Amino acid sequence: MNAGFGGLLKSLRTSRRVSQMQLSFDAEVSTRHLSFLETGKAHPSREMVLVLGSALDLPLRDRNLLLESAGFTAAYKETSLAAPEMAELLHAMQIIIRGHDPFPAMVMDRRWNIIMGNGGFAAAHALFTQQQFEPYVMLPEPRPNLVTALADSYRPFIRNWDRVVLDVLPRVEREAQGNVEILSLCNELWRRSGLQKDRDFKARAALVLPVEIALGDQTARLFSTITTLGTPQDVTTQELRIEVFHPADDASRRLLAPLLTTGA
Questions:
Q1: Do 94 and 40 have their domain in common?
Q2: Which InterPro entries does the entry mention (predicted)?
């Protein structure tokens, strides 16, 4: 059991490019003890596991995995979005994305599945895919996936598609933390793109991602930002993110507003 903990701890540490010395400093534990934990020569207390998870700034899901690998019960619950206690959260997300109309905004989960969109996003999605969905409500499964959409239906409409892929995919891979399903989608998109991720991608993602949308012979320029929800103590809540698209200039605003207002 502890060997499983040590291997997982080392994997999580190295994936974040954190040295044993840095982690021992952040967690206020000796490098010798940390080495013993990773090799299975020492067994951590529950408190030590939580300290290490905090020092590595792990997502709540990974902190639970680390606890369970050491033989402890999970510390953070994972609530279904369909649960009654999530109603207030869903309502808050509806308010946030509705306030961004007529420009696109959407809520995604950790797999980059689109859970909910506003009127602007529903209109854009229909334009790109010829598929309609009701805005402001939780979409039924199977939900549209952003990575899959980038590979297929969205691609013809994104003039700077290479730039978008080179920014989005490494971010998705970093957040996947070994999730086979997500990494498989990413690998397929890398294959289709023909891009070399190790050579073409710089380790720092752009602070703002520009997106150029082809509308006939015109181009609408947007930039997107992603927001997460404060400091939640629930796995599901922490893994939600809201992505909103802003017109990058007045010409794009004038071009997009009448086109997307029909979905609001």
A1: no
A2: Cro/C1-type_HTH (IPR001387), Lambda_DNA-bd_dom_sf (IPR010982), MLTR_LBD (IPR041413)
pTM of the model: 0.83
Asked whether the beta carbons of 121 and 263 are under 8 A apart, the reply is yes
**Claim to verify: residue 24 and residue 104 sit in the same structural domain:** no
Same domain, 212 and 149: yes
Q: What is the pLDDT along the chain (264 residues), one digit of tens a residue?
A: 445 899 999 999 988 889 999 999 999 999 999 999 999 999 999 999 999 999 999 989 999 999 999 999 999 999 999 999 999 999 999 999 999 999 999 999 988 999 999 999 999 999 999 999 999 999 998 999 998 898 889 999 999 998 888 888 888 887 776 677 888 888 888 888 888 765 444 444 566 789 999 998 999 999 998 888 877 789 999 999 999 999 999 999 999 998 888 544
Edge-to-edge, what's the strand order for the sheet holding 114-117?
114-117, 105-108, 241-247, 218-228, 209-215
Task: Check: CB of residue 114 under 8 Å from CB of residue 242.
Answer: no
Q: How many CA atoms are closer than 13 Å to the CA of 246, on its beta-carbon side?
A: 9
Residues 18, 92 share a domain = no
